[in-house]
Amino acid sequence: MKNRIGIWRVACLIYLLILLTIMLIADFGKLPIELLSKVPNYDIILHFILYGIASILSYRALNCQMMMILGWPLPLGPFLFSLITIAEELLQRILPHRIFSLIDLSASLLGIVLFYSVGRVYFPPKTARE
Questions:
Q1: 103-114 burial: b if 16+ Cβ within 10 Å, else e
Q2: What is the CA radius of gyration of the chain?
Q3: Cα torsion angle, 90, 93, 94, 96, sign
Q4: Which residues on adjacent β-strands are paired with residue 72?
Q5: Is the pLDDT of residue 130 over 50?
Q6: What number of other Cβ atoms are within 10 A of residue 57's Cβ?
Q7: How far is the C-alpha of 14 from the C-alpha of 7, rounded, in Å?
Q8: Which of 26, 27, 58 is nearest to 42 (CA)?
Q9: Pairing with 108, which of 26, 72, 75, 89 sits 20 to 30 Å away (CA)?
Q10: According to DSSP H, which parts of 1-130 are helical?
Q11: pLDDT confidence of residue 24
């Protein structure tokens, strides 16, 4: 079992490095906009998918660990990634090549929640399995 968690952690780390690279490329205004703009609403779609994948990977990498906030059980990985997502989107307000967008933030958070929900069905927390 520990070996599987290790694989998920490596996969999550690699994916987060890829996501960080994409963010830095965007922050420096180097995204291939001409290519991407051929897909309508590409930005919203990518936010949903990229952040959703990070959600399920972080959920598995942290072994489906849950935490309690105000009596509510929340998945640790997706929760932490949601905080990073909000901070990253707010940071765009001060970057010259980026634009803050509530629509992008909403798509990111929706992806995080929906991908986590799918992940929870396939990989329920330990307490639900026992």
A1: ebbebbbebbee
A2: 16
A3: positive
A4: 69
A5: no
A6: 24
A7: 11
A8: 26
A9: 72
A10: 2-27, 33-36, 42-61, 76-91, 102-122, 126-129
A11: 92
